[in-house]
C-alpha cells in the first residue's frame, strides 16, 4: 500500500485565492464609456496615472463611467483605498496597441479587509475630483473575497492589461 500525503497550512486560505483565476477564470470587462474617452483623446494610456481599487458593487458596462459611479470598499487594515497604482505603459507595434502594467498587491495588516468581488481600473486625475476620473475596465472574481490579517491579494495583469487592434 502506498500512502501519499500533502502538508498544507490550512490556517491561511491565501493559497486558495491564488488558484481562483486558474481554476475558475477571472473575467475581464471594459466600460463602454472608456471607448469614447479614448476616441476623444481624453485618456492618454501612456502618461495618465491608472489605478485599481476594490468594490463589492456590481459594475454596469453601460451605466458606470466614472469612479464615483462604483462604490469602493472601505480603506482599512492594509487596503489604502484607490491607491493601487498599476504603473502603466502603452506601446504600439504593427497596428496593435498594448497596455502593460505592474501587478498590484494589497496585504491585510491589523485585521481583514473586504469583502470585494470586482477590481476596476480608472484614470486618477490627481488635480481633479473623483467625478471626473474615468473608469476603464474591471475584473470579476466570480464571488466575494475577504482578505484576512497577514494574507495578500494580487491583481496580476499577466503579459498585458489589454490590447487594441
Report on this structure.
The protein is mainly beta. The protein has one domain. The protein contains two helices and ten strands; from the N terminus they run αβαβββββββββ. The strands form three sheets. Strands 1-8-7-2-3 form a five-stranded antiparallel beta sheet. A hairpin with a 2-residue loop joins strand 4 and strand 5.
Structural class: mainly beta
Number of strands: 10
Domain count: the total is 1
* 3D shape: globular
How many DSSP H or I helices?
2
Q: Radius of gyration over alpha carbons?
A: 17 Å
**Quaternary organization:** single chain
Instruction: Report how far the terminal alpha carbons are from each other.
Output: 57 Å
The helix fraction, in percent, is 10-25%
The chain-level mean pLDDT equals 84
**Within the largest sheet, what's the order of strands?**
1-8-7-2-3
Instruction: Name the poorly predicted regions.
Output: 1-11
Strand content: 25-35%
Helix-strand sequence: HEHEEEEEEEEE
Largest sheet: 5 strands, antiparallel
Secondary-structure topology with pairs:
Layout: H1 14-23, E1 27-30, H2 32-39, E2 50-52, E3 84-85, E4 89-93, E5 96-100, E6 104-107, E7 113-123, E8 135-147, E9 152-155, E10 162-164
Antiparallel strand pairs: 1-8, 2-3, 2-7, 4-5, 5-10, 6-9, 7-8
